[in-house]
Amino acid sequence: MEYNFNGLFLIKLIKDRIKEKKTFFEKPNLNTRDKFYRNALYWAIKYQKVQDVKLLLKHNISKKVAPNLDALSLAKQIGNKKIISLLEEKRELAIA
Q1: In this structure, which of 16, 27, 40, 83 has its CB flanked by the most CB atoms within 10 Å?
Q2: Going residue by residue through the chain (96 aa), what tens digit of pLDDT does each one get?
Q3: Residue 47 neighbours by CB under 8 Å, 6+ apart
Q4: Would you say the pTM of this structure is higher than 0.85?
């Protein structure tokens, strides 16, 4: 299955699905990925969109953002301390 989405479009698509949930009472599908199997969380981290990262984490998007890459590792590569903190906090809550 291949998609031809760019990163910003993918983030917008997922955010729209989250908004639609409020209208249609369905759980949005957050598993949409681009042609390289990167999800919206990947792009939110890559573009350092802290508010989008918060929104996606709130809706339990997969932390496996790309093949062989998890969200925390990507955030550490990017070096955004706010995003790293959000992901570490989310991970600690999941462990507890």
Answers
A1: 40
A2: 344 457 778 788 888 877 776 555 556 677 888 889 999 999 999 999 999 999 999 888 999 999 999 999 999 999 999 999 999 987 766 665
A3: 7, 8, 11
A4: no
